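FIELD: query
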Amino acid sequence: MKTTLPALLIAALLSACGASTSTDDLGRKRAELDSLKAAYKDLGLLIKEAETWVADHDTTIHKNLPAVTTLILQPSTFEHFVQVHGTVKADKSADLFAMGSGRVRRILVKEGDRVRSGQLLVDLDNDAMDKQIAAAGSGAALARDVFEKQSRLWEQKIGSEIQFLQAKSQKEQAEAGVSALREQLRMTQVTAPFDGTVDQIMVSIGDMTGVTPVVRVVDPSGAQLEADVPESYLTRVKVGDPVRVEFPSLNDTLIATLSNVSTFIDPANRTFRITVRLPQSNGLLHPNLLSVIHIRDQVQENALVVPSRTIQEDVNGNNYVFVLDDLAGKTTTRKVMVKRLADYRSNTMIQPLEGDAARLQGAVLVDEGAKSVGGGQQVKVTNL
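FIELD: result
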């Protein structure tokens, strides 16, 4: 067949060229055309067969095979994290106000000073109240003297019980009035509510105090992170979940756990609050410092995890990966349809659509170069 077919084709061509067009018979020409087409098809198959044989056996021909890298697919642990942004909140941070109006007479500290609980920070000019306290003190002293005299008379059965009780009541009222004025005076003085550091002074000498803060005191030794999480994660986030916290400004990362998950959903933005306790920070974790919190909400043991770049998608939206088979000494790609179960960063947990996961366990997966090859294609592995 290989010998006679080309001869038949040539004879048919010569016959067609030499025939007189004047005596052409339409039926004969159609038969000749069909014969030529059949001969041409058979000849093309023979040429292709010969080219394939030569390509497989001629070592002088350089094959430009697609280059790929591979990895061995083994079961591993897949972890998924929810990413939210949080801020550092100091356990002790207070903006201090003067409870009464007055003019700033003295500022006894400067920003950055360490202060003790109860220490006077800002002194206000309260001469008017001092005079009120002095007057009230004189009245209280008089009421005390009257009560003491009335008490002695009453012990001697002199005077009435009403007089005794009235003197006692007047004394107690006068003393209470002095105590109230002294409390008012104390509240106008700005003192430290706890041990800490003066973070900011908002007034100057001579300013009148009002509804604005006077001093901010912060104790950075204890702090926590607060963040808002979308309500869709409410059932997937719980107290004790491990978290990874990144501080972009500090170029630092720490591992912690969720210390509290709020049960209240904010109706304004449909989120709930989470809290992460922070270790001692040596003063680096400043209040309101921004952070990125990664909360682990899913963990799967013995999962098939592949780099996301290895997963391809066909025109119908189906996902697949390429694995390598050794066919007659040739490294050839094979398409395996998969389902994407979960993604995190650059990794994806997959499941084969046909059969069980054992079909992919230990398989050689095409990694880099997967986008430039097709199924059943011979490739060259560059990382072996």
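FIELD: remark
The longest strand covers residues 76-96.
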